[in-house]
Structure formats: C-alpha cells, structure tokens
Amino acid sequence: MDVKDRLYFIFRRKTNTLSFIPQIDGLRFVAIAMVVLYHVNIFVTNKVPFDFTRPAPDYWWMFQFLDSDRKGVLLFFVISGFILALPFARAARKEGKPVEMKRYFLRRLTRLEPPYFLTMIASYLGIILLKGHGFAELLNRTFTGLFPSLAVSLVYMHNVIFPHNLSVNPVAWSLEIEIQFYILMPLLAVVFKFTARTRWLLLATVMAGFIFFQHLLQPGVYTLFNYIQYFLLGFLLVDVYLSNYKPKLFPGASIIIGILCLAFIGYADLRQFNYQEYVFVPVIFIFYVLALTDGFWKRVFSFRLLTVIGGMCYSIYLLHYNIIAVVGNRTIFFNVTQNYPLAYLWHAAILLPIILLVSGVFYLLIERPCMDKDWPKKLWQYVNRLVGRNVAEQPGI
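^ Acyltransferase 3 domain-containing protein, sequence as received from the core. Prediction below:
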C-alpha cells in the first residue's frame, strides 16, 4: 500500500461497506466548499477597503457565485434526508433490517454530540478570552451575556429562544434544523410503506406546498418548517438509488446537463421569493441523480480527494467560521490589493489551507473516532483497564 492509499484509509470516514457511497462524500465536498467560500467572501468584502459596497459589475460573475448565502447548507439538508431515509426505505422494501429506534437515536447522540459540544464550548471560551477576560472573570463577566447563548445552543434551541441573536458559533443554526429532522425521521419514514407512485405524488405535493407557505407566512424563527422540502427531496433520491435507475442519455448529454445544474445552483439567487426557488429543488434533484447514477459524474464525485474532504465536512463546518474570524483578523493586515478577485484569492490562499489543517487534525482526533458506533464501550473498557493497572501498581496491593 503506497502513501496515498494509507492517507486515504486514515482519513476516510468509518462506515460499513453497505453504507459507504463515495459519491455522497463527493457531494458533501460541493456543499462544504460552497459554505466555506461564502464565509471567506463575507470576510473579505467586509474587511478589505474596496471603493464600493458590493463588487463592481465587472466582477458579478465571481461575486454572485461566491455569495451563495445558504445554498451549501441546503445541499447538506438533501444529503441528510437521503442518508437517514436509506435504512428505513431498505427495511420497507425487505432489503434490510428494521431500524431499531434506541440504536437510531443513540447513534445520532454518540456520533454528533462530542464534536458539537467541544466546538461550541471552545467557541464560547475563545470569544471570552479574545475579548481580554481571564478565566477568573469568566462566569461573572459573561453569565448574563454569552453563557445563555451557549446553554441554549447545547440543547439545540438557539434558533427558537434567541432567533435574532448570533450563537457563539453562528453556523450552528443549521444543526438545530438537522436535529429536528432526526427526531421526526422515524415518523416521516411511514411514506415508504406507500406505493412508489403514491409516495412521489405525496412528497411532490407536500414539498411544493411548503415552499408556498414558507413565503406566505415568512416565520421569523428558523425551524424545520422553513427547509423540510430539502430533506424530503432526499427521500425521492433514495427511491432512485434503490431502483438502480440508469439515465439513458445521448453521449455527452449528462456532462452538459450536470454542468448546467451546477451553474444554476451556483448562480441562483434565493434571497427573494421568485421562480428560482421552485426550480432550485428540481435542479438539485437532477444533479444528485446524475451523481448517484451516471458513470461520468459517479467517477467525478468518487475522486478520493473530494471524498476525503467531503467526509470530514462536519469538522470543517463546525470550525471554519471561527478559524476565518481568528486567523483572518490577523492576516488581513497583509492585504496586498484592493482589487476584489485578487484580494479574495489572496486571502483564500491563506485561510483555506489553515482551515483544512486544523479541521483535519480535529477530524482525526475527535470526529472520526466517534464514527465507531462502539466507541463509548471501548472508552469505558480502556478507562477500566487503566484504573485497574494503576490500582495493581500501588504498593501493598
């Protein structure tokens, strides 16, 4: 095994052979890239003294693509819908074991909470210390300030309780939406008991209805209500994936369609309610179907570098915003130009490697071990052995 193979297997996410779909990690790469590049863009446009509030029309092509708002997160929501629906769909088709609820919820807890708790607490402490407070002042200086934000974030309630205030880690808002979906998933999985035609008609109707009512009601609190259509889109993708569907297209057609889908995803403006939102969901569906079924796009999104980075997207997502804030506010003084494209590329070249390095270390030390479903048991056994060894080494024992 050469060095590249060793590195690949060191970084590849832990999962059983049945559950590992390399293209999904490739799609995760697309989603996390959009999120990180967007936040780098916000940082650069806020910090670099350009002579315009938004880049000039000459740079629209670049700014519009990087100014992706929440589109990367929406791509993640679709993937979550697919991954969580897959075992329920397999069970309904008699192609897999029934999902045990205790194991389902325990797995979410042991897999996601340790990295989340550590990064949220680290963000809290980092903000306080960077503001110049010592540890002795930590509680009395911040209990009525940041501590409530941390506390409600740790129980995934910040969006509801403090909807107009940023969390100690601002990107955590989407993880609260994900948790709501995880809880409801066993109930939503009832759709897999219906016939395929009924299921598709029901899901398509519900998704279109939610898009309409989201913009009609415009709730001021971010909940699953605002984004459920993206999770349900993952249900439809599960049907396509399990049916072994293969698109019958003219040679080269899938490449052109995929590129057009990527371009639309990159340039669609979803900040205002217009036709693009109704088109955005089907475009994601077509693009993901190509990634899961078409030979060319399967190869693209199975490329090892993409799957490795996509596989550690959770660590990158949790850490990147604060890395940009901490590192960027120091490296911004090394700005060499006020030209928007050059300034962006300059600061991205500084920030992106640091984000990858720090996230990679965190992934290997914290997140990846948590992918082992038996890690709590193994940790407990290790502690018992350690305690037993120390006791045995005591004099007179």
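DSSP finds 18 helices and no strands in the chain.
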